[in-house]
Amino acid sequence: NQPLISEVKNILRVAKQECEEIEICPDCYRNYYTMEEDNYFAAVCRRPHAIVWAKLKGHPYWPAKVVRYNELRHEVDVRFFGTHDKCWLKPDKCYLMSRNYPNNKKPSKFDQNKFDEAIRDMNLHLDQLDQ
User: pLDDT for 69-111, tens place per residue?
Assistant: First the structure.
């Protein structure tokens, strides 16, 4: 009986995570499950997200979407273009998107291909915003 209880707990944990993602942005959630893998992240939501340069410690600034703000922790939930990774950051680690890169330190040659992919992903998103 213990394996069954363990499986039910796992199903409930996953269901809770999925419900939280729907609450964050129903459009992002729907796009993830209904669109092609290459296009879902660039799709525009009914309530567009702020586009920023986001900085994780030990990494270069990277283009990202801000999907929510936690007032208690004073942090923003960002989703990175290209990699589609997500994390919580302090707002002072984010700069509104501009053509100017926010720092002199550009991505390393190792990161350059991933960075170029992130910029393409972001530009696709911005083109769709224009439309």
Answer: 999 999 999 999 999 999 999 999 999 998 888 876 767 776 7
Would you say residue 11 lies in a domain? no
* CB neighbour list of residue 129: distance below 8 Å, 6 or more residues apart: 44, 48
Could you give the number of structural domains in the chain? Answer: 1
CA 52/CA 78 separation, integer angstroms: 9
Residue 85 located in a structural domain: yes
* Angstrom distance (rounded) from CA 64 to CA 55: 10
- Please report whether residue 74 resides in a domain: yes
Tens digit of each residue's pLDDT (9 = 90 or more) over 56-72: 988 889 999 999 999 99
Q: What is the pTM of this model?
A: 0.85
What CATH number does residue 60 fall under? 2.30.30.140
